[in-house]
Amino acid sequence: MLTMAIVMDYEARMNESSPNASLQWLARLSGSRFNCYAGLSSDIGVAVALLAAGLWRDELRLSTTLLIVLCGVLIFSLIEYCVHRWLFHGPLSMFEEGHRRHHEQPEGYDALPFFLPPLAYLALAALLSNMMSTGSALLLAGGVASGYAAYGLSHWSMHNFRFRSQLLRTWAAAHHVHHYHPERNFGVTSPLWDLLLRSQYISAAKLAPRRTR
């Protein structure tokens, strides 16, 4: 029903006289519940497909395979941090305004159109295959795509679940703190880059003993 409604809405908007009809439709799609869940599914699907294809090539040792995938995940974690800190909280209003809506409505469905990230990671794999073996390219792109899928699933879970595990609650709390202190805790899936680049939030209670030393 929801998919049909989106298709009908698309057809109606394409018949409008406004030259921005297709962009308006994409904006509405990006904020829909359908797009949110389709995005989570397609992100996981493309990550699994790329990793499976890379493993199927069977060109590398297991240790090398794991290292390449880990590098891909690490690369994405840095991309996630940089985009969040310097683009979403940066001077460009186009990105800052969109991200501000998430801070105002953290449980909303705003996300990229579900088909864009998979296409981007397939294009990345094709580009990387010109620089390294096909198997390595698939695994590295799969690692980056896995990082993105983990980011999407983590971010959605943090705003839609209350974890029982103390470890998971502490992990999620770091991101919730960011919503109250937007100049801190830019990493969503991991605090790694916040620690390395000194942007992790430290409460006044923890800062006090340091100042008295």
Structure description:
By secondary structure, this protein is mostly helical. It has a domain at 35-163. It has helices spanning 2-14, 21-30, 33-57, 62-88, 93-104, 116-128, 134-160, 166-180, 192-196, 204-211.
Major sheet characteristics: none
Sketch the topology as an H/E string, one letter per element. HHHHHHHHHH
The total of beta strands comes to: 0
Query: What class would the helix/strand composition place it in?
Result: mainly alpha
Tell me the fraction of residues in β-strands, as a range.
Answer: under 5%
Low-confidence segments = 1-18
Gist?
It is built from 10 helices and no strands. With 213 residues, the chain is mostly helical. It has a domain at 35-163.
Descriptive key words:
single chain, 213 residues, mainly alpha, 73% helix, globular, disordered N terminus
Please outline the helices and strands.
Layout: H1 2-14, H2 21-30, H3 33-57, H4 62-88, H5 93-104, H6 116-128, H7 134-160, H8 166-180, H9 192-196, H10 204-211
Helix pairs in contact: 1-2, 3-6, 3-7, 4-7, 6-7
